[in-house]
Amino acid sequence: MSPTREVYWNISAVWLMYVLLIPTVVIFFYGLYSHIRLWRIGKPEQRAGTFSQRLKQLWVYGFGHARILTHRYAGLFHSLIFSGFVVLFIGTLVVMVHEDAGLRIMQGKFYLYFQSLALDVFGLFAIIGVLLVFWRRYILKPQSLTHTWRDALLAGLLLIILLTGFVVEGLRLIAAEDPWAHWSPVGFVVGKLFAAFLPLDAFRPLHASLWWFHLLLVFGLIAWLPYSKLLHVITSSANIYFRSLEPKGAMLKLIELETAESFGVKSIDSFTWKGLLDLDACTECGRCQDACPAFATGKPLSPKSLILDLRNALHAGPSGAPAGDGAPSGNGSLLIGKTIQEETLWSCTTCMACMEVCPVFIEHVPKIVDMRRYLVMEEGNFPDSMQQALRNVESRGHPYAGITASRLDWCRGLDVKIMSQVGRADYLYWVGCSTALNTRNQKIARALVQILQEAGVDFAILGAEENCTGDPARRMGNEYLFQTLARQNISVLNSYQVKKIVTTCPHCFNSLKNDYRQLGGNFEVYHHSELLARLIEEGKWKPSGRIKGKITFHDPCYLGRYNDTYDPPREVIGAVSGSAIVEMDRHREKSFCCGAGGGMMWAEEPKEKRVSNVRAQHAVETGADILSVACPFCMTMLEEGVKSENPGKEIKVVDIAELLRGMDSA
Ligand code: SF4
Ligand code: SF4
To answer: How far apart are CA 409 and CA 466, in angstroms?
Structure first.
């Protein structure tokens, strides 16, 4: 006889199962529909197209758990539970095909290896996964996780479903004297355990009642899914599928200034549908909060709470009460000051650490900037120090007050070509306000141009024609000022037919490379680390010696996370360092912000809450003699941080271009 089993052994009135299935499915789809209705109150946004690319993303990050696995513990239990339930689900489909569709596939080797052995093993995996969830939540208790009775109930329900499944199987294997019982090792052991305590004639009634109990729990779970945290099984997959495929640095949407009726996000329905889907996709894992430098330094910002607070606002009815009847809450009520506090929005450095770690690709930074846009462009309401910086940009073309230096002072005596005089050059060196106008950072520009001259690179600068790129304005929320500056700059660059640009500032680099594209500015933009690494690799510039002492490197957010540029600065350091780089714990994708991005360079921060101090401490803890940077903002912040945190400790903060020139020869 071919190995198989009777599907509804010992079960009568199977029709009742189909009757119960109907309300289960209705409740499930109604719940799903209620969410879709809520997302639809959002503004339109184009995320379709590139079907194959999106499917690939879903495969890698959704089914493959690529990001979840970067956290070992969470990756392990997620994979165990996910794979367990996927295999059990396929097993259920096989039963339906076999029994309901009448295709007798559940037999022979397939029955033994898949329907018996594999289902048992993966069911056990799922149990282990759920136990690991309990261990983490209730024994390890990481600070980033919130604990609600619903979470406990959900995990408990999953565990009971899995356990009762094995008990039902074990009772059948023993009572039916299944000849292939040992192919279901877990169920077989469970059956034997029951046999040790229960008389055999109790097996059948116990089996039948537990079978129905198990079924009711499974149906209950399916019906509850869209109303519970398990919804993320669906929403996170959808969110991954619809993730932005734009370059990461270009996450901010261009506002059509001429046609826009309002600016930024004022109420929950001012987000796009994708922004609202984000809110329902959050798994509440807390990784974003763990990564956030603002949260780590005690600022009133947790990216996780921000998303969950917005989610609550989405699900609240017009009165703020939960929309129990599923009525969309697009009531236009003000978010800022109620759901989200202004200080929360002005604590973000836009470092994107939250987005980099989020396993389901939730887009925190665009939401924060969109709400800033409302405050700045509709209300003119933002911190005084930032207002001053933007006023300076408007009136002086740079954000600094009290600066008397011109944009050409830094290059005195260096014979640097100016575009207006030479007309054309292979590269335009975009110096940037924070390099050209800050006495300390001028050394970075001097070091770079000396290397370029020695390497025979044909380059020129704009000099007095250079303006702020508009990056601080855009990240602070003043899209109007950003677009005005960007259009002017694009026009100047195009007038010299500029094709290639090199920058020493990752903020200028990102803006010129990614933001300007949205306004028709198409340039090949290089960060100086990339050009320097290439010149060294091609033998066009050779360092004159090796630097003694240990070097650590701080990855700038706008170079690393925004533009995935991690290796070139390390190659540059490697060319002059006598030893391997001593990395900080948080480096490359996990790098900790210096605290300057998103306009925070101009924010007042109390000393004990300075992000720069924490980062400087990370560098000091490596025992390095030199903290190498590749950004003038990082230079300013970390020099201050090092001085303030370690007044007695000698750790020099040096740009990679200065390192190549022997640190202080510029
Ligand atoms: S961008 Fe950085 S500072 Fe802002 S919420 Fe995300 S992690 Fe925190
Ligand atoms: S936003 Fe992303 S990283 Fe943060 S808690 Fe939600 S799922 Fe986790």
So the answer is: 13
Q: Hey, what are 200's tokens? A: 């055999």
Of all protein residues, the one whose alpha carbon is nearest to atom 6 of ligand 2 is 282
Q: Give the ligand at the shortest distance from the Cα of 611.
A: 1
At which residue do the structure tokens 């006889």 appear?
Answer: 1
What gap in Å lies between CA 434 and CA 144, rounded to an integer?
Answer: 36
Instruction: Quote the pLDDT of residue 552.
Output: 97
pLDDT tier for residue 595 given thresholds of 50, 70 and 90: very high
Best residue for ligand 2 mutational test, from 232, 282, 289, 367 (most atoms within 8 Å of Cβ) = 282
Q: Give the 3-state secondary structure of residue 300.
A: coil
By three-state DSSP, how is residue 582 classified? coil
Which residue puts its alpha carbon closest to atom 7 of ligand 1? 292
C-alpha–C-alpha distance, residues 178 and 195, integer Å: 14
Pair 11, 208: CB distance under 8 Å: yes
The first and second tokens of residue 534, run together, are 């290439």
Residue 116 CA from chain centroid, whole number: 40
Q: What amino acid occupies position 272?
A: T
Ligand 1 midpoint to CA 565 (Å): 19
Q: What is the band of 286 on the pLDDT scale with cuts at 50, 70, 90?
A: very high
The residue among 352, 313, 355, 305 whose CA lies nearest residue 330 is 313
- What pLDDT score does 383 carry? 86
One-letter amino acid for residue 103 of the chain: L
Is it the case that residue 666 has pLDDT exceeding 80? Answer: no
Question: What CA–CA distance (Å, rounded) separates 270 from 167?
Answer: 51
Q: What is the pLDDT of residues 635-645, one digit of tens each?
A: 999 999 988 86
Percent of the chain exceeding pLDDT 70 equals 96
What mean pLDDT is predicted for residues 335-345? 92
Neighbours of 293 (CB within 10 A): 27
Mean pLDDT of 165-181: 96
Confidence of residue 646 (pLDDT cuts 50, 70, 90): low
| Measured distance CA(661)–CA(452) in Å, rounded | 11
Q: Residues lining ligand 1, judged by CB closer than 6 Å?
A: 291-294, 301, 303, 348-354, 364-365
Round to whole Å and give the CA distance between 502 and 526. 5
Whether 548 shows a pLDDT value over 50: the answer reads yes
Which ligand is the nearest neighbour of the Cα of 283? 2
Whole-number Å distance, alpha carbon 361 to ligand 2 midpoint, is: 8
Q: Which of 448, 423, 416 is nearest to 435 (CA)?
A: 448
Q: Is the pLDDT of residue 215 over 90?
A: yes
Report the atom number in ligand 2 closest to the C-alpha of 144: 5
Closest atom, ligand 2, to C-alpha of 308: 6
Measured distance CA(639)–CA(446) in Å, rounded = 19
The average pLDDT across 584-603 equals 93
**Distance between Cα 615 and ligand 1 center (Å):** 15
> Quick one: which of 574, 537, 587, 583 has its CA closest to 659?
574
**How far apart are the C-alpha atoms of 332 and 69, rounded to whole Å?**
39
Both ends of the chain: CA-CA distance in Å? 87
Taking residues 161-166, report their average pLDDT: 97
Of the ligands numbered here, which is closest to the C-alpha atom of 287? 2
